[in-house]
Design goal:
Radius of gyration: 24 Å
Shape: globular
Oligomer: single chain
Largest sheet: 5 strands, mixed
Strand content: 5-15%
Structural class: alpha+beta
């Protein structure tokens, strides 16, 4: 007779690790605690019924394997967890459901977040960036300081999401307030009072969205209401409203954290800011590195549908597993010198936006907002600096901000580049083309035919284009012969050869 050796049990997590991560000190800097967890083992036990995982390879495996799913309402019911009350339901959102409903929801809502949808949103984002920076300038001029989170970092993504959904401008404040209070809805260890507050504002926002779906007009909401999955009853209007509420919260709060974290990262790493100033084409890679180094989402939860194992540890079906993506993003086996912020790091996929079926639907929009916002922030506010420590929101699943005071350096000049209405109309025509040009990596081959079509569609001439590139994107045309440029195709050939060498400013004073 043969016997099967039992797998070893997971070692216990360090004493009090969850309460320490949830503490004020843990919120300010969770990374030493995550390293303490890593030293305890690749898989450690949190009590008798849950596990914590820190390594990149295991976290990626959990997020991409079909053995692992989100803890949905069926899982909750088996554990006698009460269902959500009528109205807003987190259990009905794309975060908490699995296939086939998860696939239906993503198919329904993905339109604005596809590459084509993001291209259409770029001018919208750019316009809203200008509006938010105008508000920041007004606040600093009036008070000497401003709350970067309230004035800009949360206001921008909330405004973008309202525009995406076709919600009135007057509802931006409601969306921002809901976003600011929504964090406990996704926190496994949140305070009961914070959860009650979050549920109340979510219910209020759900009521507003549900009413909008009953009279959706002719925009995106009407398209969603008419979608086949809604028409055939697979997705109810209540569940659609819950997902819209979740999209507003997720799209606003995590992007807000990315913008504020970027400001702090560049201020605290002046050598990286200097390098980025000299290499502005590296901004997309820098945003990726910032999200790896300090992601807004620090942890997700999964459960296995069948008995399985992790690193030799037996994991029964239904076991709650905390996937610590922030720790995975600093795994030295995946990222050399993982605690160093390095914009020249060789690109490797991280888990800041998740992986697998539940990969963040709005990841592209968050990147777009950051890439559009940061150059304009540092161009218009070259001496912007923090005026005090950030105030972090409670929780360990999301690493977000309640406040971040900022000001100008003493004796600094006023902000540069504020545009009047007429100038903004010109930029609205020029900038979309310039952005498409500058978004192409220097070593890439730009399809000339595509540039020709863009140029002709936007009715630009060479003088407008070169002035826009030099002023708005810091591209120097010195030494580039433009005397022979006479046709649209000549302009396209010139643009293909351009390299960014400008000075977008820096975060530190």
């Amino acid at each position: 007779m043969t016997t099967t050796a039992s797998r070893p049990a997971a070692p216990p997590a360090p004493r009090g690790i969850i309460s320490r991560l949830n503490s004020r000190r843990g919120r300010e800097n969770p990374f030493p605690l995550l390293e303490e967890l890593r030293r305890a083992g690749p898989v450690v036990a949190h009590g008798p019924y849950a596990l914590l995982v820190t390594g990149y390879s295991l976290c990626e495996h959990i997020l991409t394997s079909r053995t692992w799913i989100a803890p949905d309402q069926q899982w909750r019911s088996r554990r006698n967890i009460a269902p959500d009350p009528p109205g807003f339901s987190m259990s009905a959102t794309v975060l908490r459901v699995n296939d086939p409903q998860h696939g239906r929801l993503r198919e329904l809502t993905r339109g604005p977040f596809t590459p084509r949808g993001l291209r259409a949103l770029r001018p919208v984002v750019r316009r809203l960036v200008a509006e938010c920076l105008d508000a920041l300038e007004d606040r600093i001029d009036r008070d000497g300081t401003a709350d970067f989170v309230d004035t800009v970092a949360r206001a921008l993504p909330a405004a973008v999401m309202c525009d995406v959904l076709g919600l009135p401008v007057r509802e931006r404040a409601r969306a921002a307030r809901f976003s600011a209070l929504s964090g406990p809805l996704t926190e496994p260890f949140a305070d009961a009072d914070d959860i009650a507050t979050a549920e109340a504002v979510a219910a209020d926002f759900h009521t507003f969205v549900r009413a909008a779906l009953d009279a959706p007009g002719t925009g995106l909401l009407s398209e969603w209401v008419a979608h086949e999955h809604v028409a055939d009853g697979s997705i109810s209007l209540d569940d659609l409203a819950s997902n819209i509420v979740f999209l507003v919260a997720a799209g606003s709060e995590t992007t807000s954290a990315l913008l504020a974290t970027s400001l702090l990262a560049l201020e605290s790493h002046p050598e990286q800011a200097d390098w980025l100033r000299e290499n502005p084409e590296a901004l997309p890679a820098a945003v990726e590195e910032i999200t790896r180094w300090d992601p807004a989402v620090q942890m997700v939860i999964r459960v296995p549908v069948d008995d399985t194992e992790l690193a030799g540890v037996e994991v029964p079906a239904g076991t709650l597993v905390y996937v610590l993506t922030a720790a995975a993003n600093r795994d030295p086996d995946r990222f050399p010198h993982p605690h160093t912020l390095d914009f020249r790091r060789v690109p490797q996929r991280d888990l800041s936006f998740g992986a697998g079926a539940h990969y963040c639907l709005g990841a592209g929009l968050a990147r777009l907002e950051a890439v559009e916002f940061l150059p304009e922030l540092f161009r218009r506010f070259p001496t912007l600096r923090t005026a005090g420590p950030p105030v972090r929101a409670p929780g360990m699943s999301l690493r977000t901000f309640q406040a971040l005071p900022v000001t100008r350096a003493p004796g600094a000049e006023r902000s540069r580049g504020r545009m009047d209405v007429e100038e903004r109309e010109v930029w609205d025509r020029l900038v979309p083309l310039c952005a498409r040009v500058m978004s192409v990596a220097p070593e890439a081959v730009v399809p000339e035919a595509r540039l020709v079509a863009d140029l002709e569609a936007d009715s630009l001439d060479i003088a407008e284009l070169t002035a826009a590139l030099e002023e708005r994107f810091g591209v120097s045309l010195k030494g580039v012969d433009t005397t022979g440029v006479a046709t649209v195709r000549d302009v396209a050939r010139l643009v293909v050869r351009l390299r960014p060498v400008g000075n977008p400013g820096r975060a530190a004073g």
